[in-house]
Amino acid sequence: MMPKTILVIENDPDVRYIISYVLQAEGYKVTTTAIYADLDEIAAHRPDLVLIDEWVSDEPGHRLCLKIKTLERMMHIPVIILSTANGIEQIMTECKANAFVRKPFDLEDLTGKVRELLSEVSA
């Protein structure tokens, strides 16, 4: 069986490295980027799940999440928002994200949510 692909969009190189390392150790194929150009670039990665930092590039991560969730060819992809923001639950609801992980994050919490969302996709 092919490993699930996770796209991590995170501007902090240390956080990108840690997330990538941990998820690869869990058996996932991980692609990371500090910025995103457009939705076509994201689609080209064919991710099974996307992790988006709330503060990335020139645009808040929740705006990117909302774009993903309103585009028919991508709306099925689970999205997890990573954030230090207060009111992250509200942000998650407004952008239709599937889950959020509060920074600084607990690795068990992160991997548990990834596992849960990916098992729902393949079910």
Structure description:
The protein has one domain: Response regulator (Rossmann fold). The strands form 2 sheets. Strands 2-1-3-6-7 form a 5-stranded parallel sheet, with helices on both faces. By secondary structure, the protein is α/β, with parallel strands linked by helices. The two termini are 14 Å apart. The chain is globular. It has helices at 13-25, 39-44, 61-70, 88-94, 107-122, and strands at 5-9, 29-33, 49-53, 55-56, 59-60, 79-83, 99-102. The model has no long low-confidence stretch (mean pLDDT 92).
Topology:
Elements: E1 5-9, H1 13-25, E2 29-33, H2 39-44, E3 49-53, E4 55-56, E5 59-60, H3 61-70, E6 79-83, H4 88-94, E7 99-102, H5 107-122
Parallel strand pairs: 1-2, 1-3, 3-6, 6-7
Antiparallel strand pairs: 4-5
Described by the principal axes of the CA atoms, the overall outline is: globular
The portion of residues assigned to helices is 40-55%
Tell me the fraction of residues in β-strands, as a range: 15-25%
H/E order of the elements? EHEHEEEHEHEH
Ranges with pLDDT <50 over ≥5 residues? none
CATH architectural category: 3-Layer(aba) Sandwich
For this structure, what is the CATH class?
Alpha Beta
| Number of structural units classed as domains | 1
Number of helices: 5
What is the CATH superfamily label? Response regulator
Mean pLDDT: 92
- Classification by helices and strands: alpha/beta
What Rg do the Cα atoms give?
A: 13 Å
Biggest β-sheet: count, sense, barrel? 5 strands, parallel
The third-level CATH topology is: Rossmann fold
Can you list the strand order of the major beta sheet? 2-1-3-6-7
N→C terminal distance: 14 Å
Tell me the number of strands.
7
